[in-house]
Write a structure and sequence with these properties.
The structure holds three protein chains of three kinds.
Chain A lengths: L1 H31 L7 E9 L3 E10 L1 H11 L9 H17 L1 E5 L2 E2 L3 E8 L10 E10 L8 E8 L9 E7 L4 E3 L28 E7 L25 H6 L6 H20 L5 H10 L4 H29 L5 H41 L1 H9 L5 H14 L8 H15 L4 H12 L3 H34 L7 H27 L4 H9 L4 H6 L2 H16 L2 H11 L5 H29 L5 H39 L1 H12 L6 H28 L1 H7 L4 H35 L2 H31 L1
Parallel strand pairs in A: 1-8
Antiparallel strand pairs in A: 1-2, 2-6, 3-4, 3-7, 5-6, 7-10, 9-10
Chain B lengths: L1 H21 L9 H4 L14 E8 L8 E12 L14 E8 L8 E11 L12 H4 L17 E11 L2 E11 L12 H6 L3 E2 L5 E8 L6 H5 L20 E10 L19 E11 L15 E7 L11 H9 L16 H10 L9 H9 L25 E4 L33 H10 L43
Antiparallel strand pairs in B: 1-2, 2-9, 3-4, 3-10, 4-5, 5-6, 7-8, 8-9, 10-11, 10-12
Chain C lengths: L1 H37 L9 H15 L4 H18 L3 H16 L4 H13 L3 H13 L5 H14 L2 H14 L3 H13 L3 H14 L5 H17 L3 H14 L4 H13 L3 H14 L3 H14 L2 H17 L3 H4 L1 H10 L4 H14 L3 H13 L3 H11 L7 H13 L3 H14 L7 H17 L1
């Protein structure tokens, strides 16, 4: 029953794919042969390992030369190329072609022998058949003493008079370095399967290659192997998955091996960055996930990934001329990133609330704990055990078994699988063009399973790690913070994924940010219209808030506060001050169209640096003093420890003026700091003015939004930054002091560095 | 490195020439061979494309009584041009024209006609062939102009035309082969010296490949004056490493002047001559009537006098018109022109004051001759040769004594060397810098603007890549094809 | 006085203005230099056009907003198409031109190239119209005269063609002009004049463009062949192959020369080499005919099949090859209706002598001798000395029972080129023989 069901699905998918295939050819006609229908096109991949060189050659003949070849192939002249005839031809051709391929290492020609060969007759323009000859040649490297540098020279004299696409790709085996190469590290035509559509650029004409390689280190001054976009080509292992599909003839054994291998590859793929392993782990730990969760996660990932590949495969086949699949990848990963962020944030909020509630709850529940703490650091295991047990039960059901979690778990799985692995996609397409749809689908499935396996594994690992964690000494307390931290981690991971996605999409946030850092946003003006611009303003505002000097400054202030809302308020205040000065100065600059000179600009930057140092010093002093108070109280008698806490909650006598003083400071200090920051930033406004001279109104509006963004951003950031302080001040008085101290010291150091950079390096 | 670089640039220059040609080439499809023949649409015509023209009183010691005129053709010759080495067109007529009455009409003309002879036709179209080895008569290498290994021998005749009467001065003179390389042309200097021939009635002639004597930061100049350096040095000579073909002619002064005498007073009208070079090719009637055979009238296809009106800077759409024009008709070129654009360009780019139009100073330098007293301390040297109408030609006062080779200032008059441009033009005169200053008004003719930076402008290149010769033919040896 | 002064200023201003205008012309030079320096090292056997393509691409990178970068690219692709005989490059050239015209709709360079591209696509009428339009918008241009001449010749408007060619050569007597003069003279039966003109074209051709130089050589050789001077012709072909190695036109020309010399072995070699590079139908036809002559029927069959196959696959081959196909089918007594049909379609758009000749031959094969005669008279209206036209005339007159005319033209055919076609020349001789016998009896 089940099997029937599955196979029928496969058949259906296969069918769809096949229909798609027909369309594909209809659209392929245009691009079938970049140089027209009498070209003979060459592809060679030079694979260099430290013992041997393998040449993977593909020759793709357009319709007319194919016709001429077929006249040769068709020995019996029955107008058909029988299997045996093709087989004969393949042997003949491979050996003939091999003779015209020249490979020399260190100046001596390397004898080449035919490792494998395959001749196929894929249909080309108008269903007329084309000829595809694939043959691999192998040559031994004799003098392979480690570390030695070898010179490799290659050229292919086959059909040198025939016009056609000629592509050479170089691929080092792991451990081998290739440098000073005249050829590139990546191809353009997917081994002559898909030629670039671009009608403007000339077809490749790469007939020869020279390169140096070594199984040791790359000599200084040598040029590393680059890909065609000029970036250094990291020794990418070739697409083994795609090769599984291309094996000449399938035996059940091969299929089995193929599937197993696909699983392994899937696993390997999952280990490559950008698959939210951290997310999964963090989530499960935070949620105290169980094996069940992990398994569920794995299933979701598998299904999503497989489905994703199929979907994209169809898109590629059906709509390739409208949608370029590569262009889809970034958006998909953006989606997954978005999902993760959403999950992270929601968890973060919910758990934060919980944490505070739990804090109060445990507080009056277990006074003894505190005492125990204070008395002897080491706690007797049983107590903790039961405690740990209770804690477990204490945990609100929401964290592991409420439907929300299942939902977010599902979402997480989707986010993990939604981004199809390109090589899986290649497999699908290759399988279709080789009429091995079923096998292709199986491979993809196996691949996805492997992928999911790893993610699940990671998850489980974290789960047990999390459990283990709880059974270790005082860290037990940390397990309260853990859910929040994990949520935070998830959010960050999500942001990273999104960031990378955007980068793939060609939106280099870093560049934009640095530009926005100096606020010359002309390009954004140009690209997004007024509307998008304002959205942009918000985003950049938020980002702007998270710039190092801002965070540092704010964090020093935040350390004073032991309530989250206060910490957040500090941020908001900063943002307000920042915005105010920004808008005021901005208005002036925009109105008068004046430019703030470079010197003054860097002067202001310098001022900021000094301010940060000052803040750091103050925080430092406070940290020390705070420590002092602490001791006094504790030495009096146990209960004062209690009142001590109350004091920390923010009421009460002993340091009343200090207390009120602090409240006042919440109001102004951050605002002033923000204002100074804003002033410094406003210098960069001149750029904005110069670039956007025409629309001061719009510019001002942008500023406003930007400001709002910065308020929001800093509100969040200061909240996050404040979190550890708040928690530590509540639960781990011990940890609080070092944290505070660290923050203040950090800000001092940062301030000094910043001062040097802006002042002494740039300005003075 | 620099060799490669200049070669690359050479290739670039070459390619750009071809580019211009390509721009208009026809395109045969696969069908072309039989059903429809498409000839190329415009053959770039480097062989009749004049790159530079020089005229000066010979500064080779002992030759002060002569005037030397050099016309360079075939821009951007790449030294390694085998197998199709450059030669002048033996269907074209090359001329150096002299007007000694100031009406823009040539009074004396020197004509150069070329013939190619293939020694061994079995060696297909190769300038050199190991004919001695093949015939067992010696080793490889072109030792003399009569060496059988010089396989495509280009020889030429020199004719002097005066008042419609033409006189054949010499015939069968041989132009040396290209400087192919150390094996084929082992002793090129000596070989080339053999190609310097004396002419009846005094004077000498040389025709053959030479280093392109012009030096200019073309790239920067024509990138809207985006100069690496607007002073004399710091630029890049885009013509370094490239060859041209030079037609060098030395003539006794008296053979050029209005009254047939060598003037001594620079203030007399007969002291001044105007000169330019032209290349022509015969037109024909498409359908021949039995009457007219071939070569009906010759049609002038290129012309060059003053360096600033160098044909390369004439826009394509004006090129045909101007190339076909004679100095006497230069006035009709007026309608093409709108404004002294370059000056305004310089004003915008260099942020300098420029003299107001109309620019009498420039008119004087190029079209009418420099008026009396325009240059304090300088002889009023070529004002006399003018009928008031504009005639663009290179004016030379033959009564002004030449400056010794090692004493020359290549800023000419601006450098206080009255024997240099704009009194004629010597091989080494830095006309680019002079022109920049002249157009910017940084010359004595325009005192108001004769100040820094106007009078200090330059393209950053002030010398050639190859040394000039102190004696005839003055232009440097061609770069070897194998370096 | 004042006006005089202004006039004088003019010339100087001309110089200055020209200098500025030269910025455009010569800024190529600079950008070329840079792009070359920065681009990949040039392939040793990269042709002129390959270099040119690199340069153009570099230029476009530098100034994506400027039309001339794309013009340069288009020109390079058109040249590449010339060198390879591959139509694909014309498509590339066209897209480059479209880019250019989007940036500068009235760019004369781009428009001119577009007009010449129309020629390539055998859209002669459009080419002529566009060329005339551009010409009307600015100063005379030799290139445009060239496009017009070619279009007029292909359309069969010879009087106008002669007029325009005369304007072209008067404006600028260079290789391009002389080669057109040569062709027009040949069409009018003046072979010596044609050779003379083409010799000058060969001299004037620039060594900086090997393919072009080779083209002139090949066509000088072709005229020499038509004049029965095979040895001289072959020398020109050899030179062409030396200037531009592997030039398919030169290889095919050598093939033809060897065929006429009866040296079929080498003929086959040359045609095969030509076919290697560009599988044009005429090469397959020639090979097929030689194989037939040699009795190597299977090989002949293969070549004929290939002709059919190319006709099926080549984009637009129906129009591009209509004439060869029609003649091929007619010569081999196959697909006569199709042959007549396409050549009639062709005839509706052009009136040149060769189209009339093809039409006449197809009508003859269909047994419509009256119409055939009318057509062949049109084909001879210029007095073109073409063995094939004479042969067709002879056969048609024979079919009409006009023996004297028949033998006159068949003799002319043999006299003009005793081996004008491997197979047809034989038929011509047989027919002459028959006619001779009929005379005696």
């Amino acid at each position: 029953m089940k099997t029937i069901h599955r196979s029928s699905i496969l058949r259906r998918v296969g069918l769809v794919a096949f229909v798609a295939l027909v369309f594909a050819f209809a659209s392929a006609v245009a691009s079938a042969h970049p140089l027209g229908n009498f070209t003979i096109n060459h592809f060679t991949r030079i694979e260099v390992s430290d013992r041997a060189v393998k040449l993977h050659n593909v020759i793709d003949m357009a319709e007319i030369p194919t016709f001429q070849e077929l006249q040769q192939i068709d020995k019996d002249g029955d107008g058909k190329a029988s299997a045996t005839e093709v087989e004969e031809y393949a042997n003949l051709a491979a050996n003939q072609l091999a003779r015209q391929v020249f490979l020399a290492i260190d100046g001596t020609r390397v004898p080449l022998n035919v490792i494998s060969k395959n001749v196929s007759l894929p249909a080309g323009a108008g269903g007329l058949s084309t000829l595809r000859i694939e043959f691999d040649l192998g040559g031994q490297i004799l003098s392979a003493n480690t570390g030695a540098t070898h010179e490799l020279e290659f050229h292919d004299n086959n059909y040198s008079d025939r016009i056609g696409w000629r592509e050479i790709v170089v691929m080092p085996a792991p451990g081998v370095k290739i440098f000073n190469s005249s050829a590139f590290g990546n191809g353009l035509s997917d081994q002559l399967r898909a030629y670039p559509q671009d009608r403007l650029s000339a077809p490749l004409d790469e007939r020869a290659a020279q390169l140096s390689f070594s199984n040791g280190a790359m000599p200084a001054g040598a040029h590393a192997l680059v890909s065609r976009d000029g970036r250094i080509a990291e020794a990418q292992t070739r697409d083994r998955l795609a090769e599984l599909i291309a094996v000449p003839n399938l035996t059940p054994g091969l299929v089995l091996i193929g599937l197993l291998f696909a699983i392994v590859l899937g696993a390997a793929h999952a280990l490559s960055p950008g698959h939210g392993k951290t997310v999964v782990g963090a989530y499960l730990v935070g949620a105290r996930g169980t094996t069940r969760h992990a398994a569920f996660l794995g299933l979701t990932v598998t299904i999503t990934h497989t489905a994703g590949v199929f979907a994209l495969g169809l898109v590629t086949l059906l709509a390739s001329e409208y949608v370029v699949p590569e262009k889809l990848f970034p958006f998909l990963s953006l989606i997954s990133g978005g999902i993760v962020v959403a999950i992270g944030l929601s968890l973060f909020v919910r758990r934060l609330r919980k944490a505070l509630r739990t804090g109060a709850h445990t507080h009056d529940g277990h006074t003894h704990d505190h005492e125990a703490d204070h008395q002897h650091e080491g706690i007797n295991p049983n107590q903790l055990h039961s405690h740990g047990g209770r804690m477990h039960s204490h945990l609100p059901p929401g964290a592991d078994s409420s439907p929300i979690t299942w939902k977010s778990l599902l979402a997480l799985g989707v986010s993990g699988g939604i981004l199809p692995c390109p090589s899986a996609l290649v497999v699908l397409l290759a399988s279709i063009s080789l009429h091995r749809v079923g096998y292709g689908l199986l491979l993809v499935l196996a691949f996805s399973v492997g992928l999911a396996g790893v993610l699940t594994g990671v998850g489980l690992a974290f789960v047990y790690a999390g459990r283990l964690l709880k059974s270790v000494g005082t860290l037990g307390r940390l397990s309260r913070v853990l859910p929040i931290v994990s949520a935070f981690v998830i959010t960050c991971a999500g942001l990273t994924i999104s960031y990378q996605a955007l980068a793939q999409a060609g939106i280099d946030l870093h560049a934009i940010f640095t530009r926005i850092g100096s606020m010359s946003i002309a390009p954004s003006f140009a690209s997004v219209g007024t509307f998008g611009l304002l959205g942009l303003g918000l985003v950049y505002g938020i980002k702007h808030a998270t710039e190092a000097d801002h965070i540092v400054a704010v964090s020093t202030i935040v350390t004073e506060h032991r309530k989250l809302w206060r910490a957040a308020l500090v941020g908001a205040m900063w943002g307000t001050g920042h915005t105010a000065s920004l808008v005021v100065v901005g208005a002036i600059v925009l109105a008068l169209k004046i430019a703030i000179p470079e010197r003054i600009a860097s002067g202001l930057e310098f001022l900021v640096a000094l301010m940060i140092i000052a803040l750091g010093v103050m925080a430092f002093r406070r940290a020390l003093r705070g420590r002092a108070d602490f001791h006094v109280h504790r030495h009096d008698h146990e209960l004062s420890a209690h009142s001590h806490f109350h004091f920390h909650e923010g009421n009460q006598l002993p340091l009343a003026e200090d207390h009120s003083h602090r409240v006042a400071r919440i109001g102004f200090k951050p605002a002033i700091v923000g204002a100074v920051h804003g002033l410094a930033g406003s210098a960069a406004l001149t750029l904005l003015v110069l670039t956007q001279i025409d629309s001061p109104a719009l510019g001002l509006l942008y500023l406003g939004i930007f400001g709002a963004g910065s308020i929001l951003g800093m509100l969040l950031m200061s909240g996050l930054v404040g979190l550890p302080f708040v928690l530590t001040s509540r639960r781990l008085a011990g940890a609080h002091f070092p944290l505070q101290l660290l923050a203040s010291l950090l800000s001092i150091v940062f301030g000094l560095a910043y001062a040097y950079e802006t002042g002494f390096a740039g300005w003075l | 490195m620099s060799k490669n670089f200049s070669r690359t640039l050479g290739a670039a220059a070459l390619c750009c020439l071809v580019a211009a040609g390509l721009l208009v080439n026809g395109v045969p499809g696969p069908s072309q061979a039989a059903s429809h023949r498409e000839a190329p649409l415009l053959a770039m015509d480097p062989t009749v494309d004049s790159t530079d023209f020089f005229a000066f009183r010979s500064y080779e010691p002992g030759r002060e009584g002569y005037v030397t005129m050099i016309a360079d053709y075939i821009p951007g010759e790449l030294p390694p041009a085998g197998p199709n080495y450059y030669q002048l067109d033996d269907t074209a007529l090359y001329e150096i024209k002299i007007d000694n009455t100031g009406d823009g009409v040539e009074d004396i003309v020197y004509q150069f006609r070329f013939t190619n002879k293939i020694v061994n036709p079995d060696i297909v179209l190769d300038m050199s062939a190991p004919n001695k080895v093949l015939t067992g008569k010696g080793g490889i290498g072109i030792e003399s102009l009569s060496d059988p290994d010089y396989n495509i021998v280009q020889s030429y005749s020199v004719t002097r035309v005066e008042k419609g009467k033409s006189k054949l001065l010499a015939d069968g003179l041989v132009a040396p082969p290209a400087n192919i390389g150390s094996r084929t042309t082992p002793n090129y200097d000596a070989l080339a010296k053999q190609a310097v021939y004396p002419l009846p009635g005094g004077g000498r002639v040389f025709v053959g490949p030479r280093d392109d004597p012009f030096f200019i930061d073309l790239g920067s100049i024509f990138d809207t004056l985006n100069l690496r350096s607007i002073t004399r040095t710091g630029g890049y000579d885009y013509l370094a490493g490239l060859n041209v073909h030079s037609i060098a002619l030395e003539v006794p002064i008296k053979d050029l002047t209005r009254d047939g005498k060598a003037p001594t007073d620079s203030k007399t009208a007969n002291a001044v001559i105007g000169a330019w070079t032209t290349a022509s090719r015969g037109t024909t009637s498409v359908i021949r009537s039995q009457a007219d055979g071939m070569n009906s009238e010759m049609k002038q296809v290129s012309r060059l006098g003053n360096p600033l009106v160098n044909e390369v800077v004439i826009p394509l759409k004006l090129k045909n018109a101007f190339s076909g024009l004679s100095p006497k008709d230069d006035a009709v070129a007026a309608p093409f022109v709108l404004d002294v654009q370059l000056a305004h360009l310089m004003q915008a780019v260099f942020k300098i004051d420029i003299p107001p139009a109309p620019r009498k100073d420039l008119v004087a330098i190029f079209a009418t001759g420099i008026p009396a007293g325009a240059v304090p301390g300088a002889p009023d040297y070529n004002t006399f040769l003018s009928d008031g109408k504009p005639h663009e030609m290179l004016r030379l006062n033959v009564a002004i004594a030449p400056t010794a080779f090692d004493k020359q200032n290549n800023l000419g008059l601006l450098g206080g060397d009255v024997a240099g441009f704009p009194n004629g033009r010597r091989v080494g005169d830095d006309v680019t810098d002079i022109a920049l200053r002249a157009v910017a008004g940084g010359t004595p003719f325009t005192p108001d603007t004769n100040k820094a930076p106007n009078n200090e402008l330059g393209d950053g290149v002030d010398k050639n890549d190859v040394p000039y010769l102190p004696n005839f033919p003055y232009v440097g040896l061609p770069h070897s094809g194998r370096q | 006085m004042r006006s005089k002064l202004l006039a004088t200023t003019a010339v100087v201003i001309l110089a200055a203005f020209a200098t500025v205008a030269g910025v455009r012309v010569l800024s190529h030079r600079k950008s070329n230099a840079e792009s070359i320096v920065t681009s990949q090292p040039l392939d040793a056997h990269a042709s002129q056009s390959d270099r040119q393509i690199q340069i153009a691409e570099g230029r476009i990178k530098q100034l994506p907003g400027a039309a001339d970068g794309y013009n340069l690219l288009a020109a390079a692709y058109m040249q590449k198409a010339r060198e390879t005989g591959d139509f694909g490059f014309n498509a590339r050239a066209e897209s480059a031109l479209n880019q250019s015209l989007e940036l500068a709709p009235d760019d004369r360079e781009a428009r001119t190239m577009h007009a010449s591209l129309m020629l390539t696509y055998h859209r002669f009428g459009e080419a002529l119209k566009e060329a005339r339009r551009i010409q009307s918008t600015g100063p005379e241009s030799a290139q445009l005269y060239g496009v017009m001449t070619d279009a007029l010749v292909e359309l069969g408007d010879y009087p106008d063609a002669v007029k325009v060619a005369q304007q072209m050569i008067n404006l600028r007597p260079d290789a391009a002009a002389y080669s057109r003069v040569s062709y027009l003279r040949a069409l009018h039966g003046d072979l010596d004049g044609a050779i003379e003109a083409m010799r000058i074209a060969v001299k004037a051709a620039s060594a900086t463009n090997p393919e072009n130089a080779g083209w002139y050589r090949v066509h000088l050789g072709v005229e020499l062949m038509n004049a029965g001077k095979r040895d001289e012709a072959e020398r020109e072909f050899d030179i062409a192959l030396n200037i531009f190695p592997g030039y398919h036109l030169a290889l095919a020309a050598k093939g033809r020369a060897r065929t006429e010399a009866g040296d079929f072995g080498h003929a086959v070699d040359f045609y095969q080499q030509a076919q290697e590079r560009v599988p044009l139908p005429e090469y397959a036809i020639a090979l097929g005919d030689i194989y037939t002559k040699l009795g190597r029927t299977t090989e002949a069959r293969r070549q004929y099949d290939l002709v059919e196959f190319i006709e099926r696959t080549m984009p637009g081959s129906a129009t591009l090859y209509s004439r060869q196909l029609a003649l091929f089918w007619a010569d081999h007594d196959m697909k006569l209706d199709a042959a007549l049909e396409i050549v009639q379609r062709e005839r509706q758009t052009r009136e040149d002598v060769y189209t009339y000749d093809a039409l006449a031959w197809c009508l003859y094969k269909k047994g419509r001798f009256g119409e055939a005669r009318a057509a062949i008279d049109q084909a001879r209206r210029l007095g073109t000395r073409d063995a094939r036209i004479f042969y067709h005339s002879g056969m048609i007159y024979d079919a009409l029972g006009d023996r004297p005319q028949a033998s006159k033209y068949l003799k002319l055919a043999i006299k003009t080129d005793s081996a004008f076609d491997v197979l047809q020349a034989e038929i011509a001789r047989q027919k002459l023989g028959e006619l001779g016998k009929q005379e005696q009896s």
